[in-house]
Amino acid sequence: MPPEKIVERTTKRRISLGELREYTNGIATVTEDVVSMNGTVLLPRGTQLASLMSSVEDLEKTLRRWGIFSISITLNNKLNVNELEHMLKNAEANLSVIDPQLARQTVTQVSNVYGRITDGVCKPEDISRLAEQGRNLAKEVAQAPQVMFCLGQVRSWDEYTYVHSLNVALLGGFLASRLFPGRLELMESMSMGGILHDLGKARVPQEILNKPGRLSPEEFEVMKKHAVYGAELAVENSVTDERVLSVIRGHHERFTGSGYPDGLEKDAIPVEARIAAVADVFDALTAQRVYKPPMETRSAISIMLENMEGHFDPQVVRTLLTSLGLYPPGTAVELSDGSIGVAVGARGNDLLRPEVLLQIDRTGRKVSDMRIIDLSRTEGLFVERSLHDTGKLAF
Ligand SMILES: [Fe+2]
């Protein structure tokens, strides 16, 4: 079981007496003593509104009599991220997601092919089956209106490379569809290339591949060879699509010319490789590894824009940024009425007003049913702030 992640959020606000009844169902407490004009404490600080449920009518009358029409309350919301993720899983049926079976199948197939390469028993049909899987993924991605919840979660340490391959295929295909709408063949090549991009790692010694933390300069030189190994392996196994081969060989090329294996610069890098580079680094940053927690989506993007400035094709990074929006799916958000939920996507291109799966309502009460609020259609309700990003990239 992963450790429990709790997001805590304390909010204070004034509510009118008319709202008092609704809040007796929640977790609010009274922020400061409510005192009558003659100094009598009518409602002491710290009182839980829930404890007033039976006497709320009398209390309301008393307060009105003293000319008090609003009170200050405090909400101490605790959001359990594990619960939230569980809820998201249940919500998947209603969300646009990549077919979970296809995702699982892909991860297993990638893992099998890597195993066969390592054992020296890989056959061309194994690779072509994997490439075919890329085509199926492209079809799924083509149907996804936007980035939504992805199932490409790493469940075990060993799985990382395979799940990462799936994610690069999904995100690469998605970015290609945004950058070059209508070019299905490019999307297909991107998805196939994504699945195969790290194929060459099957020829890199395990101890280097799975070393937690930094590699020594010598180890890094060995690791770098995976781009060339991968392209060679693909050709040996009858992969002829030039775009797929460009993804495999060129996904570590950098716009600045500082990448490998060929040190190509800017437009000299095939566009497929430029897209794959963005998908690859973004997924690596947002993935959870044994030695690091997942990075929040927005932090990953800002690192790519600032710390790695110039490394990536700016048009591709921009596309990633606008596709994810300001509140990428998986971001826990607090709304302007104090309710808390998780962004699950956005209709159309409204990056500021996502759809939010409500988790805690404005009175601080847990929402047990599946309630999705489309902020683009809800007058006066907006995202106040983002609280936490579950760190999972999504389709
Ligand atoms: Fe790679």
The stretches of 5 or more residues where confidence is low (pLDDT under 50) are 148-155, 390-395
CATH class of the largest domain, please? Answer: Mainly Alpha
The helix count comes to 14
Tally of domains: 2
Percent range of helical residues: 40-55%
Structure, explained:
The structure is a single chain. The protein is of the alpha+beta class and 395 residues long. The protein has two domains: 7-80, no CATH class; 97-324, Orthogonal Bundle (Hypothetical protein af1432), CATH 1.10.3210.10. It has helices at 17-23, 56-65, 81-91, 100-119, 124-143, 160-179, 184-196, 206-209, 217-224, 226-236, 242-250, 271-286, 297-305, 314-324, and strands spanning 6-16, 29-30, 34-35, 41-43, 70-80, 331-335, 340-345, 355-360, 372-374, 383-389. Helix 4 crosses helix 6. It is elongated. The model is unreliable at 148-155 and 390-395 (pLDDT under 50). The protein binds fe (ii) ion.
Main attributes?
alpha+beta; 14 helices
Task: Tell me the layout of helices and strands.
Elements: E1 6-16, H1 17-23, E2 29-30, E3 34-35, E4 41-43, H2 56-65, E5 70-80, H3 81-91, H4 100-119, H5 124-143, H6 160-179, H7 184-196, H8 206-209, H9 217-224, H10 226-236, H11 242-250, H12 271-286, H13 297-305, H14 314-324, E6 331-335, E7 340-345, E8 355-360, E9 372-374, E10 383-389
Antiparallel strand pairs: 1-5, 2-5, 3-4, 6-7, 6-10, 7-8, 8-9
Bound molecules: fe (ii) ion.
